[in-house]
Design goal:
Strand content: 15-25%
Structural class: alpha/beta
CATH topology of the largest domain: Rossmann fold
Distance between the termini: 44 Å
EC number: 2.7.1.130
Pathway: Glycolipid biosynthesis; lipid IV(A) biosynthesis; lipid IV(A) from (3R)-3-hydroxytetradecanoyl-[acyl-carrier-protein] and UDP-N-acetyl-alpha-D-glucosamine: step 6/6
Family: Belongs to the LpxK family.
Helix content: 25-40%
Radius of gyration: 20 Å
Number of domains: 2
CATH superfamily of the largest domain: P-loop containing nucleotide triphosphate hydrolases
Catalytic activity: a lipid A disaccharide + ATP = a lipid IVA + ADP + H(+)
Oligomer: single chain
CATH architecture of the largest domain: 3-Layer(aba) Sandwich
Shape: globular
Function: Transfers the gamma-phosphate of ATP to the 4'-position of a tetraacyldisaccharide 1-phosphate intermediate (termed DS-1-P) to form tetraacyldisaccharide 1,4'-bis-phosphate (lipid IVA).
Number of helices: 12
């Protein structure tokens, strides 16, 4: 089955490579952030890092994406450049998180090219960042940023046998390759990229914020009473990474509740969280930024029981070469 899948991918890519399937060009530069695999490799924090990089250079970026597991269909404007104008259910958790965290235009659509064209023509932006855009070749991009983790290199099998959507040879299309593990080096991808492609590491760092009406940030010591154990809740593609982050922060976990990726939390789930906290004798629940935007719907129930949420996010930090590599490709 993987051989058949690989042949289909190769045929599709060949059509774009030789121009038989043309890509749509936007009126503003387009930067894609993507990967070769299914599952989480850290695209969301990298998207946010690049948006902030662009803002430092005076650009007005917009984010476009599919809006996976949202309850809506078609094109939805999540943030219009002034405020959030869609619910988390209509937007999807990742898109809503970008809108709330970045305060920039965000558009979701199954066809990312439609989202990009709409953002470029109708919203206040002069550059577009596509979240998970590497396989969406119908949209022309000026910069292709591709994230590579250890599993991509060491387990390079295609779907359905493995987790790769494209083979490693597709890295030849990349403008920039970001290594998401300190153990990976340029030689791990050197045979797939040209010498002029920037290959650099991204430093991933955890951040914490208390989910209150004003969402305050601070240190773990300030937010968790000394000696208190917590309940950990997540519904993401890579819960192992979240567990490792929590352990890295030195948080003592009493109970772990894990759901499927992009889980749509219900009132019953909220009550399960409350019961788990009560059984553990804690008032603190740890979750991810993506889960927090959905669990926030039940804040009244949590507040009534005296339970507060601590959101653990991830920020990406790069060295100056990434800044230079992006700017030289989008500045006329």
């Amino acid at each position: 089955m993987s051989a058949i899948y690989g042949a289909i991918v190769a045929h599709r890519n060949a059509r774009y490579d030789d121009g038989r399937s043309p890509a749509v060009r936007c009126t503003v530069p387009v930067i894609s952030v993507g990967n070769l695999s299914v599952g989480g490799t850290g695209k969301s924090p990298v998207v946010q890092m690049i948006v902030r990089l662009l803002q430092r250079h005076g650009y007005r970026p917009a984010v476009v994406m599919r809006g996976y597991r949202r309850r809506s269909k078609g094109l939805v404007v999540v943030h219009d450049g002034a405020s959030i104008v869609a619910t988390v259910a209509a937007a999807g958790d990742e898109a809503f998180m970008h809108a709330r965290t970045l305060d920039v235009p965000v558009v979701v659509c199954e066809y990312k090219v439609d989202a990009a064209v709409h953002a470029a023509g109708m919203l206040p932006c002069d550059v577009i960042v596509v979240d998970d855009g590497f396989q969406h070749r119908a949209l022309y991009r000026d910069v292709d940023v591709v994230l590579i983790d250890e599993r991509t290199i060491h387990q390079p099998q295609l779907l359905p046998q493995g987790r790769l959507r494209e083979p490693l040879t597709s890295l030849r299309r990349a403008s920039i390759v970001l290594l998401m593990s300190p153990t990976l080096m340029r030689h791990d991808v050197a045979s797939y990229v040209s010498d002029d492609v920037l290959v650099t590491h991204v430093v991933i760092e955890p951040t914490t914020s208390l989910l209150t009406e004003g969402s305050t940030s601070g240190s773990i010591a300030d937010m968790i009473p000394r000696g208190e154990r917590v309940v950990m809740v997540s519904g993401i593609a890579n819960p192992e990474r979240f567990r490792a982050t929590v352990a890295q922060l030195g948080i003592d976990v009493a109970t772990i509740l894990e759901y499927g990726d992009h889980h749509d939390y219900t009132k019953r789930d909220a009550m399960s969280v409350i019961r788990a906290a009560q059984a553990a004798g804690t008032t603190t629940v740890i979750t991810t930024e993506k889960d927090a935007v959905k669990l926030d719907a039940y804040r009244t129930s949590f507040d009534t029981e005296g339970i507060h949420f601590l959101s653990i996010g991830i920020t990406a930090r790069s060295l100056d070469p990434l800044d230079d590599a992006i700017m030289e490709r989008i500045v006329p």
